[in-house]
Amino acid sequence: MLWIDCPWCGARPETEFRYGGEAHIARPEPAATDDAGWADYLFMRSNPKGVHAERWMHREGCRRWFNALRDTVSNDVLAIYPMGTPRPDASGGEAGNE
Ligand SMILES: [Zn+2]
């Protein structure tokens, strides 16, 4: 079973959480994008084999959202970090925004 370390509640089983999709998807200004750009924003997501930045919500606990870096091959959660902060690099250090 996958265990996720909620920043507020501690380690809990995956079944208490809701997956919220890929993290760091920036909403484009509607007037500044065309239909193809808007469709990309709505529907196109990366599907990496390896480290993936994801949004999670502790549905059966504090009900707060946070971001996680998860390796999609090993299912290891490599980092947990607040919404709105830059994605850390896979080794746990800080990196630039994506
Ligand atoms: Zn929690």
CATH superfamily: Folate-binding superfamily
CATH uppermost class: Alpha Beta
- How many structural domains are formed by the residues? 1
How many beta-strand segments? Answer: 6
- The succession of helices and strands, N to C, reads EEEHEEE
Report the β-strand fraction as a percent range.
25-35%
Question: Which fold does the CATH topology refer to?
Answer: Folate-binding fold
Number of helices: 1
Strand order of the largest sheet: 3-4-5-6
Please tell me what the overall shape is: globular
- Average pLDDT figure: 91
Largest sheet: 4 strands, antiparallel
Rg, Å, rounded: 15 Å
Assign the structural class, choosing from mainly alpha, mainly beta, alpha/beta, alpha+beta, or little secondary structure.
mainly beta
The CATH architecture can be named as 2-Layer Sandwich
Amino- and carboxy-terminal Cα gap: 29 Å
The percentage helix is under 10%
Stretches where pLDDT is under 50 for at least 5 consecutive residues are 92-98
Question: Could you tell me which ligands this complex binds, including any ions or cofactors?
Answer: zinc ion
Question: Which helices and strands occur, and which strands form pairs?
Answer:
Blueprint: E1 3-6, E2 10-13, E3 18-22, H1 35-43, E4 51-57, E5 65-71, E6 77-81
Antiparallel strand pairs: 1-2, 3-4, 4-5, 5-6
This protein binds zinc ion (ZN).
Zinc ion binds at residues 6, 8-9, 58, 61-62, 64.
